[in-house]
Amino acid sequence: MFDRSRLHRLWQVRRSVQLVWKSSPKSTLIHGGLMLVLGLLPVAGLYLVKLIIDTVTAQEAPEWESIGGLLAAALSIAVLTDWLRALDAHVSEIQSQQVTDHVHDLLHKQAIRLDLGYYENPEFQDNLHRAQTEAPYRPALIIDRLISLLQNAVSLGAIALLLLAFHWELTLGLFLFMLPILFVRMRHARLQHRHWQSWTARQRQAYYLSQLLNFQDHAKEVRLFGLGNHLHQRFMDLRKSIRQDRLALSRDRTKGEALTQGCASLGVYGALAFLAYQTMVRAISIGDMVVYYQALQRGQALLRDLFASAAGLYENALFLANFYDFLLLEPRVKEPEVPCVIPQPLRGEIRFECVRFDYPHGTRPVLKAVDMTISAGEKVALVGKNGAGKTTLVKLLCRLYDPTEGRITVDGIDLRNFSSEEWRKQIGVVFQDFGRYQFTVRENIGFGDLVARNLPGQIEQAARLSGADGFIAGLPHGYDSLLGTLFAGGEELSIGQWQQIAIARAALRSAPIIILDEPTSALDPEAEAQVLERFRQIAEGRTAILISHRLSTVCMADRIFVLDDGRVCESGTHTELLSLNGVYAGMFHSQARHYRTVQE
Ligand SMILES: Nc1ncnc2c1ncn2[C@@H]1O[C@H](COP(=O)(O)OP(=O)(O)OP(=O)(O)O)[C@@H](O)[C@H]1O
């Protein structure tokens, strides 16, 4: 029956060949050439052995000179084989390094292209893990298998000619005795791939547990709550279940191999018995017997290698399926065919029109119908309970997702009409979970704008705006101090100081829209007051959105939007919202009550 999936796997072999060829044409060519020569040399060696034996046994008193030349030729072939093998190992290393780098290049480019939604999906994470672990080395293996398939086929062809000329039934019989090996290996490749698919989730969990135990991020809590042994036990349980599966598979393979190899040995020794008989009845010479037997043995080894190459080819094609699937994924945030040019200067009027949003794997809408207009240059604050959807709203504005329904416009143009990359250049954001890059201070701030970072004084100016300049001056190498504890010589900062670096990063970008999501949550009151003072400065001439739970912080905004139940339920100035006596007033009074209680 026509099997589409097998055809698909053949297609993957072709893609792998193209991929390897593209990444390393020269070394692939040399590697292929060497493998072919290495495939032919053993046959030449074998033929010389036959000549030597025939010479030795044919003459009454053979002259040493008559076999000296043959011995020298056999020695040369053996030495040449060793040299070429060593050279081939080196070329193969070059090729595999080039392929690995090329695959990493493809993986990273695709990872950058895909949107955030994918990364929040466990199934995608499983596929990504499979692609990352298998793809860097499997395409080169496919080439290896293909070449050795070819090499073995050439050697085998030459030996088969020799054997077929002698006794074709014997040759066919030997082949049939070997055939089960191919079936067992193909079956094992299929089973291994199927099991591997089911291991991925457990492997990722085990890796995560290992990270919890080994990485700095959780080191405090793991010790404080005494989680070490508990997490370690969970890790060991997972490893045990994976190990048991692997061993079951290995047992299955061992049984199959034992049976099929036994069958193959039966074939070879049956053939030896036949050769011995033929020699005893003088149907063939002793030289013939030695050469045919050697040819049979070598033929058997070559056939075994040929089957191993075929099964390996099949296995690698199966394992690469995930990688090619990963490369075929299309971002869900679609780019317009002809993107609108972003108006320059962008005024920065933002409008949410009846925006509904459900996370791709969420169970309920996070935003139900958000209508909100932020005028150009306005400084607004967004408040609401935990989980009200404030950060989600910002993610939509940054086009990390597109709304499920409704639209978001800037200066009257739907965001979906812009190239998302160009659009994001118009926004400077500090998220709650901002990045803490284990690089220098200069790089940490410079990541905010890869062009502006090279202009003199820009990084220092951004640091002044965020208030980070004070502690940076106290660091041993100032702006060139390495941050974090991951690499030698790094300086660890407090969370609040990291937050100031993140604000400087956003300030460096001269974007017309600036968004600060909980920018002062980790700052001490003095630093918070300074940041807020500077917020107006940073936001000068830009549209600014500030998200905060500290209502003392948001009251300085031109307008406050209150999010509740997936909608904007109130908006106005601090005073207007207080007099409304609604959700905002309730939140404000409960915070004020808390401070009063603390004072008393
Ligand atoms: N990646 C995600 N997938 C599915 N649901 C999500 C995802 N991120 C957030 N949510 C859900 O969306 C809702 C809104 O989250 P969001 O982070 O926008 O709230 P928030 O108002 O910023 O909260 P907070 O004040 O605690 O920061 C939450 O109920 C959360 O569980």
From TrEMBL:
- State the UniProt keywords alphabetically: ATP-binding, Cell membrane, Membrane, Nucleotide-binding, Transmembrane, Transmembrane helix, Transport
PROSITE patterns from the entry? ABC_TM1F (PS50929), ABC_TRANSPORTER_2 (PS50893)
Q: How does it sit in the membrane?
A: Multi-pass membrane protein
InterPro entries to which the protein is assigned, alphabetical? AAA+_ATPase, ABC1_TM_dom, ABC1_TM_sf, ABC_transporter-like_ATP-bd, P-loop_NTPase, Type_1_exporter
Subcellular location(s) per record:
Cell membrane
Q: Which organism is it from?
A: Methylococcus capsulatus
What parts of the sequence cross the membrane?
29-49, 146-164
Q: Which domain of life is it from?
A: Bacteria
Q: What is this protein identified as? A: ABC transporter, ATP-binding/permease protein
- GO (cellular component) term, any one: plasma membrane
Domain called ABC transmembrane type-1: residue spans:
34-315
ABC transporter domain segment(s)? 350-590
GO molecular-function annotation terms? ABC-type oligopeptide transporter activity; ATP binding; ATP hydrolysis activity
